[in-house]
Amino acid sequence: MFHRISNWHYYPLVEDLLENGISDAIDPYEHRCQQISFFSRCLSTEEYIEEDMTYVEMLESKKDLSDYFAFEKKLIDFFIDISKKSKIVLLDIRSRPGKPILTSKQTVKWKQFDSPGLINKTITKGLREEYQYDFFLPEHHTIIVSNYDLTWPIFMLKPYSDFAVREASRHQLYVW
Predict the structure, then answer these.
(1) Alpha-carbon torsion (114, 149, 166, 4), positive or negative
(2) Are 135 and 86 in contact (CB under 8 A)?
(3) Domain total of the chain
(4) What is the residue range of 43's domain?
(5) What is the pLDDT of residues 126-142, one digit of tens each?
(6) Starting from the edge strand earliest in sequence, which strands make up the sheet with 174-175, in order?
(7) Strands annotated E in 8-102
(8) pTM above 0.70, yes or no
(9) DSSP per-residue codes, 98-120
């Protein structure tokens, strides 16, 4: 079921996201950024080069995937939990395959991202490099950007809410 949000405060940002992508679009807005990550800290350039950074790289190197699967489960559980507490808008801002959920017309369409099956499928396929969506929590002025490299930025727009950061920490995900 789709819902319409009109007179949305961040509508210009959403239009810009659709047109220009996250990096260019977010800059004009006051924001803070933290990361949800597979890694306990920000890796140095050398570590980044040496480390298997994606699920596909881990598969190719034939490493034990138990830590990866534990991260994937925590991330799925995190999204299932926050979907019970907040609306989540799926953003297809990077023209990934699949149907775009968001329109760039006068109203924004969103689909409540609260089905455990849809969450599991979306997060798993995103982490495994099949497709990606980004996630906007309008009530908390927060965008969570999915990445293949197992580190997902959380952009908190003014007025700042640390809701996603607190929930990620509660799910024992690394946040830095």
Answers:
(1) negative
(2) no
(3) 1
(4) 2-175
(5) 888 877 778 888 888 88
(6) 89-91, 134-137, 142-144, 151-157, 31-37, 174-175
(7) 31-37, 89-91
(8) yes
(9) S------SSSEEEE----HHHHH
